[in-house]
Amino acid sequence: MGSTPPAGTAPLTASVTLRPITAETVVAVCSLAVHPHQERFVAPNAVSLAQALFAPTAWYRAIYADETLVGFVMVDDDVTKQEYFLWRFMIAGEHQRLGFGRRALELVVEYVQTRPGAAELLVSYVPGEGSPRGFYATFGFVETGEVDDGERVMRLPLQPAMTPPHPIS
Fold this sequence. Notes:
Strand order of the largest sheet: 1-2-3-4-5-7-6
Shape: globular
CATH class: Alpha Beta
CATH superfamily: Gcn5-related N-acetyltransferase (GNAT)
Structural class: alpha+beta
CATH topology: Aminopeptidase
Distance between the termini: 34 Å
Radius of gyration: 16 Å
CATH architecture: 3-Layer(aba) Sandwich
Largest sheet: 7 strands, mixed
Oligomer: single chain
Number of domains: 1
């Protein structure tokens, strides 16, 4: 018999998508939370959305697995400077370790690769037990040696976006 995911959890085979946050979904996005021991590593989504109001380069999306809201992502998408920074990234505690974060990050990378002059994606993390450093490292991010406001900076070199393949009929 196959295993059934816990109630309120998307199946492991779920399709992950990044969607605009709407008036209908903003409260649910703000209600998402990481595990309590992870709270010191990422700001609440309500804070992130408030910051986005005053950051014209903020690009943010809700992360869905099929029709289940599972996370939030925000990128500093600065086409003028041609700099791209993964500003916020979170998967709600009950949806972690199911592959949704990795797939969502792949989608973010695909998006950034389409941006003008995108040669790398930067991220920073608060060091400490339980930090997301290991997740980013397994994805290919490497330490830069830089520290920004107490957070260690990592970079992911990017390849230019390829022309999407044509679907097979």
